[in-house]
């Protein structure tokens, strides 16, 4: 399971990036502390209620309070019901003793429910093509820029960006700034031009120039806008015709502050463009961080990256165990 950038990508070369493993221990502990700090709203909302529940009598009212706390944190009704039912069964059977054991088992159950599919990002193809999709305002273009930066810095990969958002006035300029920071080239088109043409040119250039990874941004759109969703499906078909197996990853960026609406977004985007993974952003701005766990379990879509702030280091790989620990209030168990 990915916990550091060195472990986040399937590269096919069998070689860990320089410094990936050697520096893992201290770096992971530092990242865990930042994760805890960033999702403090979710943690504070849950930790107190869980401590109260597990320190008293485990009667029907206690389990109901636990369910209410998890649902309030947007863990989702289905995920909450399954997790609490299993925890209650084990507690009644004498398998768990004391609040510490109950908390630890709750973390394990939540983490297991969110461990689905392939959580790494596949960049084995040359070029590997990543398509970025999502609703307006979710931080999609920023995520594209940060991902390119990490690919360059952590893996030494060459990256070509495609500015497929030809409608938002500042989108191209924003991506150009990120291209400069990441040290990569960018493909653009005239304002209002066909995003499929930009996607085509991006893949063609990446193939012709021997680029390792092509990341194609797209215009934000509501999942309820049928015409725009059809356009997105067209962009994907253009990419698929250009290169067999492409796009190799389709990452949907979702704003965590939208709560359960994120499930509807993810479901409809997945139907249109075969989403392979979720990037969950703005976790530092919500007390309902459990949506990461709900999306993974209920839609069987792996959360691959999370955004917990504005800095480059605040886009990070998602680790279900680490995230559940930070959310519930358990200790960092290191690497």
Explain the overall architecture.
- With 335 residues, the chain is α/β, with parallel strands linked by helices.
- Helices cover 50% and strands 14% of the residues.
- The protein contains 12 helices and 10 strands.
- The strands form 2 sheets. An 8-stranded mixed beta sheet has the order 5-4-6-3-7-8-9-10, with helices on both faces. A two-stranded parallel ribbon has the order 1-2.
- Strand 9 (303-307) and strand 10 (315-317) form a beta hairpin.
- Helix 3 runs antiparallel to helix 4 and helix 5 (98-113) crosses helix 12.
Q: Compute the average pLDDT.
A: 86
Computed over alpha carbons, the radius of gyration is 21 Å
**Which spans of ≥5 residues are poorly predicted at pLDDT below 50?**
15-23
Distance between the termini: 11 Å
The shape, in one word, is elongated
Helix content: 40-55%
Total number of helices: 12
Report the structural category: alpha/beta
Summary, kept brief:
The protein contains 12 helices and 10 strands. It is an alpha/beta fold. Strands 5-4-6-3-7-8-9-10 form an 8-stranded mixed β-sheet, with helices on both faces.
Please specify the SSE layout and strand pairing.
Layout: E1 9-10, H1 24-38, H2 40-55, H3 60-72, H4 77-92, H5 98-113, E2 121-122, E3 128-134, H6 140-155, E4 159-164, H7 171-182, E5 185-187, H8 195-209, E6 213-218, H9 226-242, E7 249-255, H10 261-273, E8 277-281, H11 291-299, E9 303-307, E10 315-317, H12 320-328
Parallel strand pairs: 1-2, 3-6, 3-7, 4-5, 4-6, 7-8, 8-9
Antiparallel strand pairs: 9-10
